[in-house]
């Protein structure tokens, strides 16, 4: 006996039978429930044991859960459980304290490298400061002119040494000797080495003097506290 069609309920013969969705269909009856577009086994989509095309396939929609007393009670219980778990984790983490970094060979190597870099930088700065480490700093150029002039004022006592000029006249000489080495920081300054003799001195204000270095022939400014009167 031939089975009935799932749509028209008429008998379906084997030559036109389509078996799908637990039913048998005529080829002409196997169409979309909405638009009646003819379907095949390759493009149909089943829902509720009925064929649909892709355009009219029913889409599932989520329903909103009603806030019934039971749902509210479950929601509150869930929140309480979450707070209890959070507090438990917090109390557990407080007991751990700070973690200690393992002193692995790699950490030891990094630490040693950092120490070497620090030592190198320290020695570089030390070598730079050695140039003037044994010398007092030049006086600030804010000293008064009266203090500098007092340094060059002759003191009572024997007369200063004089040099006899070829013509027979007397020319007073006043010389200073360098106590420390000095590297000039401006173009108008002269360099000094320990023992250099400075002639033709001229007092200027702010802790500096002007003179001629006999060794180098340079003429310019130099710190007055780097030299002594001969």
TrEMBL record:
Residues 171-230 form the SH3 domain. GO terms for biological process: monoatomic ion transport. Gene3D superfamilies: Cysteine Rich Protein, SH3 Domains. It is found in: Cytoplasm, Cell cortex; Cytoplasm, Cytoskeleton. One of its GO terms (cellular component) is cytoskeleton. It comes from the Eukaryota. This is LIM and SH3 domain protein 1. Pfam families: LIM, Nebulin, SH3_9. Keywords: Acetylation, Actin-binding, Cytoplasm, Cytoskeleton, Ion transport, LIM domain, Metal-binding, Phosphoprotein, Repeat, SH3 domain, Transport, Zinc. Plays an important role in the regulation of dynamic actin-based, cytoskeletal activities. Agonist-dependent changes in LASP1 phosphorylation may also serve to regulate actin-associated ion transport activities, not only in the parietal cell but also in certain other F-actin-rich secretory epithelial cell types. PANTHER family: LASP (PTHR46218), LIM AND SH3 DOMAIN PROTEIN 1 (PTHR46218:SF2). PROSITE patterns: LIM_DOMAIN_1, LIM_DOMAIN_2, NEBULIN, SH3. InterPro entries: LIM-SH3_domain_protein, Nebulin_repeat, SH3-like_dom_sf, SH3_domain, Znf_LIM. Residues 127-168 are annotated as: Disordered. Its main location: cytoplasm. Residues 3-63 form the LIM zinc-binding domain. GO terms for molecular function: actin filament binding; metal ion binding.
């Amino acid at each position: 006996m031939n089975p009935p069609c799932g749509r028209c309920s008429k008998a379906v013969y084997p030559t036109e039978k389509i078996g799908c969705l637990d039913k048998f269909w005529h080829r002409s009856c196997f169409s979309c429930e909405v638009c009646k577009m003819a379907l095949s086994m390759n493009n149909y989509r089943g829902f509720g044991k009925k064929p649909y095309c892709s355009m009219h396939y029913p889409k599932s929609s989520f329903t909103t859960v009603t806030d019934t007393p039971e749902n509210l009670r479950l929601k509150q219980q869930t929140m309480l459980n979450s707070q209890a778990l959070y507090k438990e984790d917090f109390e557990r983490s407080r007991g751990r304290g700070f973690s200690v970094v393992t002193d692995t060979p790699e950490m030891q190597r990094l630490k040693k490298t950092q120490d070497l870099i620090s030592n190198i930088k320290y020695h570089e700065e030390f070598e730079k400061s050695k140039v003037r480490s044994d010398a007092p700093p030049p006086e600030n150029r804010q000293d008064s002119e009266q203090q500098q002039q007092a340094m060059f004022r002759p003191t009572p006592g024997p007369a200063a040494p004089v040099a006899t000029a070829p013509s027979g006249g007397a020319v007073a000489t006043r010389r200073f000797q360098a106590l420390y080495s000095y590297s000039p920081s401006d173009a108008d300054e002269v360099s000094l080495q320990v023992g250099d003799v400075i002639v033709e001195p001229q007092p200027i204000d702010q802790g500096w003097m002007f003179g001629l270095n006999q060794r180098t022939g340079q003429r310019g400014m130099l710190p007055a506290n780097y030299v002594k009167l001969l």
